[in-house]
Amino acid sequence: MLALLGWRVTGAFPNEPKMVMIGAPHTTNWDFVVALAAAFSLRLGFSWVGKHLLFRPPVRWFFRWLGGIPVDRRASHGFVQQMVGEFERRSRFLLAIAPEGTRKAVDRWKTGFYHIAHGAGVPIVIVTFDNARKAIHIGPAMIPSGDLAVDMDRILALYAERLGAPLLPEAP
Questions:
Q1: pTM of whole model > 0.85?
Q2: How many domains does the chain have?
Q3: Is residue 172 part of a domain?
Q4: Are 86 and 67 in contact (CB under 8 A)?
Q5: Range of the domain at 58
């Protein structure tokens, strides 16, 4: 399916049973389709976060079967701690998050992915959707240091290097 869509995957996921994968830029619903096609082609079962409105009947079961975890972005419900708990509970957990939190242009990324990875002690894996080249670039992975500003500068620099332009004007 990935080849039919004209996309390819470069790089490789680290051989780790637990990680937070951040995929950016997230600009269209097709990013989700391409990411799922890549996951199936790589035989990579992962969970992903989506807005709770996607998980209504009659398609709720389908999105959950695909690994979806609903999140209600209107209010804080301890989502970061809930995901840290999932990492502690499971022997294997690959969590994919779009750091923008939406498909719209944003001034700053949400930082929940960072706090989840840091709280769970798992690496963050950089995944870039290069729409111009129809390529998904995987890696590198980094362990969060606990210094959000420094680590976000590093993450954003990796995306800028890969895409040839910064994603955001400044790190959160």
A1: yes
A2: 1
A3: no
A4: no
A5: 8-163
Q: What's the rounded Cα separation, in Å, for the pair 54 and 64?
A: 10
What is the Cα–Cα distance from 159 to 152, expressed in whole angstroms? Answer: 11
DSSP notation for 137-159: EEEEEE---S-HHHHHHHHHHHH
Asked if the structure places residue 90 within a domain, the reply is yes
Tally of CB atoms within 10 A around 145: 10
Look at residue 170 and tell me if it is in a domain.
no
Which tokens sit at 37?
């096609």
Secondary structure (H, E, C), 88-140: HHCCCEEEEECCCCCCCCCCCCCCHHHHHHHHHCCCEEEEEEECCCCEEEEEE
Q: Say if residues 83 and 120 touch (Cβ distance below 8 Å).
A: yes
Read off the pLDDT of each residue in 77-90 and give the average, rounded to a whole number.
92
Does residue 171 sit within a domain?
A: no
pLDDT in tens, 15-58: 999 999 999 887 777 888 888 888 888 888 899 988 889 899 99
